[in-house]
Design brief:
The structure holds 2 protein chains of 2 kinds. Chain A is an alpha/beta fold. Chain A contains 5 helices and 13 strands. In chain A, helix 3 packs parallel to helix 4. The chains are: A alpha/beta, B alpha/beta.
Chain lengths: ~230, ~230
Amino acid sequence: MPIELNEEKARNRIARRIAKEFHDGDVVNLGIGIPTLVSDYIPEDIRVIFQTENGAIGAGPAPKEVDLRFIGAGGRPLTVLPGGSFVASDFSFGLIRGGHVDATVLGALEVSQDGDLANWMVPGKIIPGMGGAMDLVVGARRVIIAMTQTTKKGEPKIVRKCTLPLTAKGVVKLIVTEFAVFSIEKRQMKLLEIAPEVTLDDIKAMTNADFLVAEPLITMQGTEEEKA
Amino acid sequence: MAKKVIKPVLSAAEAVKFIKPGMSVMVGGFNYGGIPYTLIEALVEAGVDDLTLISNDTAYEDVGHGKLVANGQVKKVIASHVGLNKRTGQLAMEGKLELVLYPQGTFVECIRAAGFGLGGILTPTGVGTVVEEGKQVMDINGMKYLLELPLRADVALIRAYKADRMGNLTYFGTNRNFNPIMATAADYVIAEVDSIVPIGELDPNEIVTPGILIDALVVKGDNYYANRT
C-alpha cells in the first residue's frame, strides 16, 4: 500500500526542509519546479543571495507587473533586490564553475547511492538539452536534490546505479524528498531524517539503494511547522 | 577589414542582407530576454535558409529566432537548451535538423574562446556524461577536464540597450546574457538597440561592449516582444 501525500503538501515540505540548509550570505541557485519554492521558506534572520544562471545576482520575488527585461532561468519574471547586480552569461558561469556559488537546488529523475545525478533527458523522448544543469552540479559547492521519493508510478528514484543519461557523476550531497532526507558523503549514502507518516521499512521499500541509517534517526525537520 | 568608426544605422531589412544562405549566425538571448527581435523578424521575412543557428536556446516556436527554425531556414542548431521550442526537437528527431547541444557554461565559454583568441578551453563540466563522447579528456593535477573548441560565426545578431554612433553599448537587466560575448566572436556584428544617443553621452564607465566590435546598428522596431524587452 503506497503512502500518499497531497502533492502541494509534499512540494512545500521539501522546500521548507531545504531552506533550513542555508546560512547567512550563502549564494544559492534554484532550479525550476520544487526548488523555486525554497525561497519562500528562508528564515527571516538570514539573508541568502539568489543567483540565476542567466545573469541576475540578488534575485527577489516575482514582480506585480511583468517586465521581461528581468527574468530568471526558467523564464519567470523576477525582481532584483537592492544591492543586486547583473552579469553576462560568461561571468555567470564563471561564478558557478569557479566555486562562488554555495549551493544549487535541482530536481532529479534519478540519483544513485554514490551521488550520480540524472536529470536532463529521457532516451526516446524529444531532447530538451542540458541547459545550465551540468555546469551547476559540477561547479556549485553543494548540490541539493529536491524530488519526490518515487515516480508517479511508484518506482524508486534513488537507485543503486542510474539508468538514465547522467548529468554528472558523484556530485549529489543531499537528497530531500517528501518522506526522507539523505546525505551522500564520500560516495556513501545515509538516511538522516524521516517524515512522521513513514517508517524505516517504508523508506527501504521506496528506495532501490543501499544506505546507512543515522543514529538517532530523527523526524524530518520542518514537518512540525506544517498546518494540519 | 577595419570596421567603420561611425557605425551605419540601418533598417532591420537592410542589416540582414549581410546574411547569406549557408552562413552561421549567432543570436543573443535567453528565453524571452535579450533577443534581437526586430532583426529576427527581418531575417524571417527575407527567408534566407540553410543557416547554422548558434544561440543558447531556440526560444519558442512562434517567438524570436524560434520562428527561423519553424520556418525551415535552419539546417543546424548549436545550443544548450531547446526544450521550449517543440519544433526544434521534433525536426532533430526526424533527421531534418542537425542539433548539437553544449552545457550552457561550456557553450558561452567556447564563444568567448573564439572571441578572445584561445585555442579552446578545459572544463570539468560534462566529464563522465554523453558530452564527453568524441572529445579529448585531459588529466590535470588529478582532475579530469574536457577540451572544448572555440565556437565562432559569420554574423552575430545581438541586443543591447543604448548605443552611440561609435557602436558603444550598454545593456539592461537580464537582457545582457550572451550578447556581449557574441559581439566578440563573429565577423560581422549587428546590434539592435532601444535608442542611439550622441557620442559622449554614454558614460565610459557604463559601456559594456566597446564600439570597436560592432559593424552596424538597428533601432528596435514596433514588435510585441521588442516592446517588452
